[in-house]
Write a structure and sequence with these properties.
This protein is an all-beta fold. About 0% of the residues lie in helices and about 50% in strands. It has no helices and ten strands. The chain is globular. The relative contact order is 0.35.
């Protein structure tokens, strides 16, 4: 299952860094899916920065920079992948 958490507002191709405008929280280790007209990949969040300061968690309304594994484009949608934990079989 995926939950939309924001969109890409800028991409620094020489750094491989995307700036995101967030509508929901994001933390290190979250699995995200970035998709758009010509973009479609999934990755774990390995770094988050706000104004060049590393953070581990960000809240809705923040503009944050994250390193991305593939190029992205402005207006690409960012979704958090909610990983279901299998319930034990009785």
């Amino acid at each position: 299952m995926e939950v939309s958490i924001g969109k890409v507002v800028h991409y620094y191709s020489h750094l491989g860094v995307a700036v995101l405008a967030l509508d929901d929280e994001l933390k290190l280790g979250d699995k995200i899916h970035i998709h758009g007209h010509s973009t479609d990949f999934t990755q774990r969040v390995a770094s988050i920065e706000i104004e060049h300061h590393s953070v581990v968690w960000v809240k809705p309304g923040d503009h944050v920079a994250i390193r991305v594994v593939d190029p992205v484009h402005e207006h690409d949608v960012v979704s958090r992948v909610v990983e279901d934990i299998a319930e034990p079989i009785s």
